[in-house]
Amino acid sequence: MAASETAGLRGPPIPKPPVHQQVLNSVPVAVAIYAVVIGLIVYGSFVGARNMGYNWQWYRVPQYLYSFTDDGFQWGEISVGLVATIRLSILSFALATALGLVVALLRLSGLVVGPAVAVAYLELIRNIPLLVLLYLFYYVLGPIFGLDRYVASILTLAVFHSALISEIFRAGINAVAVGQWEAAKSIGMSTGQAYRYIILPQSVRFMLPPMTGEMVHLIKSSAIVSVIAVAELTTIGRNIISDTYMSFEIWFTVAAVYMIVTLILSVGVSFLERKYTVDQ
Amino acid sequence: MSSRPIIEARNLDKFFGKFHALKDVSISVRQGERVVVCGPSGSGKSTLIRCFNALESHSSGTLVVDGIEVFEGSKDVRRLRQEVGMVFQQFNLFPHLTVLENLMIGPMKVRKVSRDQAEETARKYLDRVHIPEQAEKFPAQLSGGQQQRVAIARSLCMETRIMLFDEPTSALDPEMINEVLDVMVELAETGMTMVVVTHEMGFARKVADTMVFMEEGRIVEVAPPEQFFTAPSSDRCRMFLAQILEH
User: Fold this and answer.
1) Which residues fall within 8 angstroms of residue B232, CB to CB, at 6 or more apart?
2) Going by C-beta distance under 8 Å and a sequence separation of 6 or more, which residues neighbour residue A164?
3) For residue A1, what are the contacts with CB-CB under 8 A and spacing of at least 6?
4) Reported ipTM
5) Average pLDDT taken over every residue of chain A
6) B109 and A189 in contact by Cβ < 8 A?
7) Which H, E and C letters describe A261-272, residue by residue?
8) How far, in Å, CA of A93 to CA of A85, rounded?
9) Looking at beta carbons, which residues of chain B come within 8 Å of A180?
10) pLDDT of residue A1
């Protein structure tokens, strides 16, 4: 009896999904449905724009990216704005990373008040909207400490993103096996040396993917500083529109520029990730 | 063999929360002595030797290792650890560094010796553990036995005076145990002070000067190996030996 049960391992056949599901899940049908939906949205937008009498002027857009004048090649305003956005993002990200590391180390430290201070900081930052934080830095702390709009913008973005970055650091540090700490300590390393030579280098591979996400997030949220008229991509886009009334074309262009930058960033980091991969 | 004690523990107690891991443990290890500690799991063997290099801090009692009094928060802990090497069950090599870098980082960063000198020392000890050809590889490219030998060399590179082994062969495949034990036997022949937690009784018979049997946080029996293996005084120790020597 037992033998007959194990002799044939053929159980009942796994039932196939109903026919309509098989058809809907096949690649050509799925792609077709997707194309139709996207097509309808795009077509609808154009019809809507035409009905409201929108005058498309795409031919006027390239001059805002670059132009050839008698002086030769020149970057357009949007390109200049992009450079400003990148600069703002890099400065903010560097500061956010430094702040985040300090907060993470505070939280992991054995100090009496360290973890409490870190948690209070995190909760404070996480529960204030970015826009309100910007207003606080610019309209409240700005006059008190004499911060100009650019410094206020950098501080806002850095402080806001340092909260998430500190959590990324903390998770990355905790992901390194406890045996690594013990091995580092057992050859006489101080806590600082263990962090620097043993723990942090191994945390990098855990931290790279979420840190990339955070950098992308920061670049996008940097657009918010346009409300205090810091000259960057979004502000410049708005200025061009108030001069030319080409709001559709310029907003499309600005969105595309943000997308291209963040996509390039993501691809670049995936190369880095491969470099930092270590087998355990 | 000098008779000066290099490890002197008196009435050590250790609690993990409510768990009483070490109960009034006193033990003294002379310079050059080879001590093998055995006992059932959870008996406090690992906790005891982890106290010796302050990876665990004892709750009460006194512990003096190589003339340094060990207690929680002592400023001398790092100096102590430079004199006391530790080999772990799970090797704990640094996976992001090559074998050579694993051996060099301690001397360079802790002892502040030059890179050239650190490399010379590293290659010397890599020779000693019979894997000079693996210097440029990463730990993950080595077998378990090779990794454990690198871990031994890493401790030796710190020119330690005492070596602690925390079940060094328990995580190894059977065919790799002997290559690690051979290295340990050779190390014992150099006169190194060794405290080894292990169930490898063949190794114990070969090198141990003193056998220690622990159970439930207490040292139950301390005896030279001949007496320990032939005529243990406690019943519990006899039962334990019967169990592990059966195979």
Assistant:
1) B213, B221, B223, B238, B241
2) A100, A214, A217
3) none
4) 0.89
5) 87
6) yes
7) HHHHHHHHHHHH
8) 12
9) 92, 94
10) 47
